[in-house]
Design brief:
Mean pLDDT of chain A: 94
Number of helices of chain B: 0
Order of helices and strands of chain A: EEEEEEEEEEE
Shape of chain A: globular
Oligomer: heterodimer
Structural class of chain A: mainly beta
Largest sheet of chain A: 7 strands, mixed
Largest sheet of chain B: 6 strands, mixed
Radius of gyration of chain A: 13 Å
Strand content of chain A: over 45%
Low-confidence stretches of chain B: 1-5
Number of helices of chain A: 0
Distance between the termini of chain B: 22 Å
């Protein structure tokens, strides 16, 4: 079966803009988690959605938000982009406690 | 793709050697642990997991050891191959919570 699909793969945005990233989980998986990966901080948990509801949230400012649709696809949004938001954003499709990751979206803020 | 290995501890080995990658976890309530491998330009891939009621688990060429007393986890890779070169992360989970907490990662470099 198809894996986790994240779009777009690469994105360049300007400070102050907003961005929306998309994730399609593995078919049948209802839980989606988002992580931010940077060289200095490693993988940090952003939030998790299950059946269209945010179930857990990490320690990120309110500029970071997300949602999940009835087909389990998820989007995350970052508003008022800052240079420090440049990172690889990873989506994980969850089966129990096991996470299956997509290839990520590489966001560069200039 | 851009490297995620900057600022990471690095383990360099020769092809055919055995590799041991270590991880210290933080939460004594964690009861499920996973090792992930991340190659350049890709997302992390599951390697092996272990629950806290075990102290050792073996897979194909990989073994995970868990020492709950000192909150330490290790990944052993037998007969390391150039294709094993990647960044390796340990992750911990607490029962009842579906989020994973990741370690900082170790870069493994295998020379032919």
């Amino acid at each position: 079966k198809a894996g986790v699909t994240q779009t777009p793969r690469y994105l360049i945005k300007t400070r102050g803009q907003q961005v929306t990233l998309s994730c399609s989980p593995i078919s049948g998986h209802r839980s989606v988690s988002w992580y931010q990966q940077t060289p200095g901080q490693g993988l940090q948990f952003l939030f998790e959605y299950f059946s269209e509801t945010q179930r857990n949230k990490g320690n990120f400012p309110g500029r970071f938000s997300g949602r999940q649709f009835s087909n389990s696809r998820s989007e995350m949004n970052v508003s008022t982009l800052e240079l420090g938001d440049s990172a690889l954003y990873l989506c994980a499709s969850m089966s129990g406690y096991e996470a299956f990751f997509g290839q990520g979206t590489r966001l560069t803020v200039v | 793709g851009e490297s995620v290995g900057l600022h990471l501890p690095t383990l360099s080995v020769q092809e055919g050697d055995n590799s041991i990658i270590n991880c210290a976890y933080s939460n004594s309530a964690s009861d499920y642990f996973i090792w992930y491998k991340q190659e350049s330009g890709k997302g992390p891939q599951f390697i092996i997991d272990i629950r806290s009621n075990m102290d050792k688990r073996q897979g194909q060429r990989v073994t995970v050891l868990l020492n709950k007393t000192v909150k330490h986890l290790s990944l052993q890779i037998a007969a390391t191959q150039p294709g094993d070169s990647a960044v390796y992360f340990c992750a911990e989970n607490i029962a009842g919570y579906s989020t994973l907490t990741f370690g900082k990662g170790t870069m493994l470099l295998v020379s032919p």
